[in-house]
Each structure stands twice: as structure tokens, then as C-alpha cells.
Write a structure and sequence with these properties.
The protein is built from four helices and nine strands. The protein is an alpha+beta fold and 233 residues long. The N and C termini lie close together (9 Å).
């Protein structure tokens, strides 16, 4: 039988908070910098499938909290959206200087989407993310004097999320229904200039990114729901 705590959480999620969800308009990709730029990346998860697929329990806080493998590539604008925007046409031959990835849950019962992960300074030739990439690097590799305090094994940096950790795995409120996790991949025309003493946040990106900074982008959506009788709940 579910515990009192679980039953109370389910009541709150299914009754009190049921209408608090769907803040899609506040996702990073819906900020002003992206207004006239169509998605021209193809993003998928070899582990989970196409966009809209469910996350495996292993990818959530009910499992081992593994980041789902992601992969992406640039696609011809004409075949992806039919008619390109002016900004897209200006950037179709612009090389990517670095990628950033931000994961948000717009269905969390908060005023703004919850940031589960923010990663930047991803090498332009790196177009896949693996679970092992998210191990923190404590000891500098051979030939390197020091390593950033927020450096990861994949060779990139992590920014600020709600729990102030590398990766905050999915754990939607029990009884709140299906939550969508937007894995947003953005190719930038120039590297982000982030002071090493500062932890990059979504708010900083919203304030500094402009349309000229964005070469390409797209999103992969993973879904997860917590229910009684599943995963020991």
C-alpha cells in the first residue's frame, strides 16, 4: 500500500496542482532570439527513439539518473522546413562555433519551466552526448595544468539548474500526469564568453543571446509520468 506521503503527494498533484502546467512559451527556444529562426537540426535519442518517446526509468530519479544519449546533425533548410527565414538563409553557410544544450520541464507546477540541465562550450564536431560525458572531471588530464570547476568528462561545461548539480533527473509530482522534458540543442555562431567565476544560467542566456548568435537549433522531447503501482510507488 502506498505510504501516507505518497498518497498526499498524489492528491496534491492530481487535484491542487493539476492545472499548473504547460509553460511552453517560457522555454529558451521560445525567447525573442529564436522568433524568426526555424529549427534546422535533426535531434534524436538512440536510447529512447524519436521526439515524444518516453524516458526510461533509468533516466529518472527513480532509477540511476542517467542522461539519455542524444545525437544531432544539421539538415538542409529547404528539406526541413520548406521555406527558410531570412536569418536562416544568412546562417546556412555559417559554421557552428560551439553547441549548448538546455533541458527544461514546462509542465512542472512552477511559474517557469524547471531547468534540469544546462551544458555549453560543446565542441562543434561533437554531435552526440553519452551518459559518461557527464562525469565531473576532478583530476586534470595529461598535459593540462588545471580544469574548470564545472568541467565534465565530455569536454564541455555545465551551468546552473534547479538543484545546482550536473544533471537533475526527471521526477515529476506523483499524480500530476505526463511531463515533457525539452532537450534543446543550439548551435552558436561564436563562443559564449562566460567568466570562469560565474555559473551560466538560463536567465543569462535569455538576456544575452540574439538572433545573430544562433546558427541552428532543434529539440528532442522525452516524456515521463509517475503513477501508483509503478516503480515501487
Amino acid at each position: 500500500m502506498p505510504s501516507f506521503t505518497a498518497r498526499f503527494e498524489h492528491f496534491v498533484g492530481s487535484h491542487v496542482l493539476s492545472s499548473f502546467r504547460g509553460h511552453d512559451n517560457k522555454l529558451l527556444i521560445n525567447s525573442p532570439a529564436f522568433t524568426h529562426i526555424a529549427p534546422t537540426l535533426q535531434v534524436t535519442s538512440p536510447e529512447c527513439g524519436h521526439s515524444g518517446s518516453p524516458l526510461d526509468v533509468a533516466h529518472t530519479s527513480l532509477g540511476v539518473k542517467r542522461f539519455p544519449q542524444l545525437t544531432w546533425h544539421r539538415s538542409p533548410i529547404e528539406t526541413h522546413i520548406g521555406i527558410a527565414t531570412t536569418v536562416n538563409m544568412d546562417h546556412r553557410h555559417v559554421p557552428v562555433a560551439e553547441y549548448l544544450v538546455i533541458v527544461e520541464d514546462p509542465d512542472a507546477p512552477y511559474p517557469d519551466p524547471v531547468v534540469h540541465g544546462l551544458y555549453y562550450d560543446i565542441h562543434p564536431r561533437k554531435t552526440s552526448l553519452f551518459p559518461s560525458d557527464f562525469d565531473e572531471v576532478i583530476i586534470p588530464p595529461p598535459g593540462v595544468r588545471s580544469v574548470a570547476v564545472n568541467g565534465l568528462r565530455g569536454g564541455f561545461l555545465y551551468g546552473l539548474n534547479r538543484q545546482k548539480c550536473v544533471w537533475s533527473a526527471a521526477r515529476p509530482t506523483l499524480g500530476h500526469g505526463v511531463h515533457r522534458y525539452f532537450f534543446q540543442v543550439v548551435g552558436l555562431s561564436k563562443p559564449l564568453k562566460v567568466d570562469e567565476r560565474v555559473v551560466l544560467s538560463k536567465d543569462m542566456l535569455r538576456k544575452t543571446l540574439t538572433a545573430k548568435d544562433i546558427v541552428c537549433w532543434s529539440v528532442w522531447v522525452g516524456k515521463f509520468e509517475r503513477k501508483f503501482g509503478r516503480n515501487g510507488e
